[in-house]
Design goal:
about 20% strand, 7 helices, about 220 residues, seven-stranded antiparallel beta sheet, alpha+beta, elongated
Length: about 220
């Protein structure tokens, strides 16, 4: 593991998938009625902050990027195991981590196994008990529902249809989950590529949430 981030390897790009994207900058309510609303309020708050920080970090590298995977660890525990981590954190982040037991640090994973798509990649991953959660970023292509309904059934034709459709949107999705059940998603569109236009919610992409959560089982 390497590259610790103040949050809170390359793998093949995920195949384009059609789905509806949330409106830019429109957060989805994080309430206990959602399927991924489990876990303490403190854990969910820390996770949403971590996922937003990961998305911002990845956004700095631009678009057309590979899948990126991160381990999420409680910063206090990470500092206890590796005191030199304190030298990599800004003073305000370090102070926040020392007072908040749920403050999270993300650690990007290098040398990811080869995979045809993100689901296959996640099926090959598992985490030690010292890891409190996991996160990933992936880019996908989405279409409005009306255009999606006309997509060809043939996989190759569907990809060509997606990539050439005038109403397509490129989106970056960041997803994070914790062992206690909390989940958070952040979504940025290329058409509204601004830090204040990132939508978010606990269950925006339930399929990815479930696949990522399975790596913690």
């Amino acid at each position: 593991m390497a590259d610790a981030h103040q949050a809170a390897g390359d793998a093949p790009d995920d195949a384009p998938a059609a789905s509806a994207a949330p409106a830019p900058g429109a957060p989805v309510a994080d309430d206990d009625a959602t399927t991924s609303g489990a876990g303490s309020v403190a854990a969910r708050t820390a996770l949403s902050s971590a996922v937003r920080e990961i998305e911002l970090h990845v956004a700095r590298a631009g678009w057309d990027a590979p899948v990126r995977v991160f381990a999420l660890v409680r910063t206090q525990q990470a500092l206890a195991a590796e005191p030199t981590l304190a030298d990599q954190l800004e003073p305000d982040v370090l102070a926040a981590a020392r007072t908040n037991p749920w403050h999270l640090t993300s650690v990007e994973q290098e040398g990811l196994p080869a995979a045809a798509d993100v689901e296959q990649l996640l099926g090959q991953l598992s985490w030690p008990s010292t890891v409190d959660g996991a996160a990933l970023t992936v880019e996908r292509v989405v279409l409005p529902p009306a255009a999606e309904a006309q997509m060809p059934a043939d996989p190759d034709a569907a990809v060509a249809y997606l990539m050439s459709h005038p109403d397509r949107q490129d989106v970056r999705i960041a997803v994070g989950v914790l062992r206690d059940g909390a989940a958070w998603c952040a979504v940025r569109t290329r058409a509204h590529d601004s830090d204040d236009q990132v939508g978010g919610g606990p269950d925006v992409v339930p399929g990815l949430v479930a696949a990522l959560r399975s790596t913690l089982d």
